[in-house]
Specification:
single chain; 99 residues; alpha+beta; three-stranded antiparallel sheet; 5 helices; 22% strand
Length: 99
């Protein structure tokens, strides 16, 4: 196992255990996306998506930046550094997304 503790791994996996948050991560594997595009792809209300994005942001899974009147989301640099294609290595386990 790398320098990631089981506790760190469990914390990130707990954040990803919710289906909508896991779907956001899967979508962002394809590159940065605006909130509106994420909302349309996932099909949930904007307020609920905002909640899930805040949880992901607070956990260091995603980051956001203003893009005009919209907000652009992307995977965090830390998560990107542990990613190989559609696989994210958490140190204790690997999460694989189908293409």
């Amino acid at each position: 196992m790398s320098d990631v503790t089981l506790s760190d791994c469990a914390s990130q996996l707990q954040v990803l255990s919710e289906q909508s948050r896991l779907e956001v991560v899967r979508l962002l594997l394809g590159g940065p996306s605006h909130v509106k595009a994420l909302q349309e792809a996932i099909g949930i209300e904007q307020s609920l998506l905002s909640h899930h994005l805040r949880v992901l942001r607070d956990a260091g899974v995603v980051e956001s930046e203003r893009d005009g009147k919209s907000v652009l989301y992307r995977l965090s640099p830390d998560l990107e550094s542990r990613r190989r294609g559609h696989v994210i290595d958490f140190g204790c386990c690997r999460l694989t997304f189908d293409d």
